[in-house]
Amino acid sequence: MEKHQSRFEWLQDYLGLEQETRYFEWKIRKAAAEADRWSNGDLSRLHIHGQGTRAGVAGDEIEALQQKLDACEQEKRQLLELIDTFDETDNQILRYKYIDGLTLEVIAAKLHYSTDTVAKRHAELHRRLDWLDEWEKSKRELEDRLDY
After folding, report:
1. For 72-112, how does the pLDDT look when each residue is reduced to its tens digit (9 = 90+)?
2. Which is nearest to 14 in space by CA: 83, 70, 63?
3. 4 — alpha (psi -120 to 50), left (phi > 0) or beta?
4. Which CATH class name applies to 86-148?
5. Residue 43 near residue 37, CB atoms below 8 Å
6. Sign of CA dihedral 130, 131, 134, 140
7. Using one digit for the tens of pLDDT, what is the confidence trace for 49-69?
8. Residue-wise over 74-103: b if at least 16 C-beta within 10 A, else e?
9. pTM higher than 0.85 for the full model?
10. Is 21 exposed, middle or buried (0-12, 13-18, 19+ CB in 10 A)?
C-alpha cells in the first residue's frame, strides 16, 4: 500500500476491495478475450499499422490490470491477517461486520449475544485498532527522526 491508511479504514474498505477485485478480474478476462481475437480470432487477418499490434496493446493492459489486482489482493490479505490476530468472538465480529457487511444487530443474533454487547465489543475493537494506528504512527515518526 503506497500511502498510510489506518487499520480501521482498511476494515471499512474491505467490501470496496472485494468489488475492485471482481472488477479487475472482469477487465482482465475482457482484455484477454480481445487479445485472443486479434491474435487468433476473427480480427487476426487485419493488419493495423501504428505503435504496436492491438493484441500487444491488450496484453499490456492485462499486465497493468494484473498488477492492480495483485495490489488489491495483497491489501485484502493484510486485512485478514489483522483480523486473525483477534480472539474468536472479536474475530467473528470483525469478519461479519467488514467482510460479510452485516449489521451489528444481525451479528448479535448470529453470535447469540445482545445487540448492546456486540456494540460494546465493536466499540472496544475500534479503540484498540485506533490505538494500534497511533502507536504505528508514533513509531514511524520516531524512525523518520532517527533516519538522517
Report:
1. 899 888 878 878 888 899 999 988 988 888 999 999 999 99
2. 83
3. beta
4. mainly alpha
5. yes
6. negative
7. 444 555 556 667 888 889 999
8. ebbeebeeebeebeeebebbbbbbbbeebe
9. no
10. middle
Q: Taking the CB of residue 6, how many other CB atoms lie within 10 A of it?
A: 15
User: Which residue ranges make up each domain of the chain?
Assistant: 1-85, 86-148
pLDDT digits (tens, 9 = 90+) for 90-100: 999 988 988 88
Q: Considering only CA atoms, which of 21, 129, 25, 14 is closest in space to residue 80?
A: 14
Output phi, psi for 46, to 5 deg.
Answer: -80, 140
* C-alpha cell, 101: 457487511
